[in-house]
Amino acid sequence: MKTFKDFILLIVAIFFCYVGMCVFAGCKMITDDATEDIALPETPGILKTAYKQQSIIELHPDGYNVFDLVEKLTGTDHRILAGYAATEGHWCLQAVGDDGISRGLMQINETYRDTWEKLCGYHYDPFDLFDSVYLCGLIVQQNKAALPITAEWITAYCRGVDGVKKYGVIDWYVKRVTRYL
Question: Read out DSSP for 127-142?
Fold first, then answer.
């Protein structure tokens, strides 16, 4: 860079590229008005609406982030949920798997949409933060009930209960998911 002006132009260009990527990728940007008071409702369907505008790193006014809230609703440890978010969707709300079937932060497999909607009790959006984390928490609890060994129920999220029974545990996957414990 030859001048200070070139440096400033570069910084401005980087900023606009970032904003453009957030808009086109559907990323949620942090805003001051996102911290307005939200009553903590009783049902997940209403919670979904309350959290629709929240970003991954913003906290609920009562101090609950989405992972903590889902832990309270489903019983699934928030650190395991965070491990799935990092391993499955790499912290990207708009993630789409290589096959085009797995979608969102928790890479919800759309092949089983009817099953997942029965499990969570409403029409979910795999790209919505609350929906994907809540559904992951429910799936984990279902896997825990079917498979008593921790490494098995963790692997069942990506391989399915029958897949774990047939092919066993995926050690590297369990290690990644449990890295926040």
Answer: TSHHHHHHHHHHHHHH
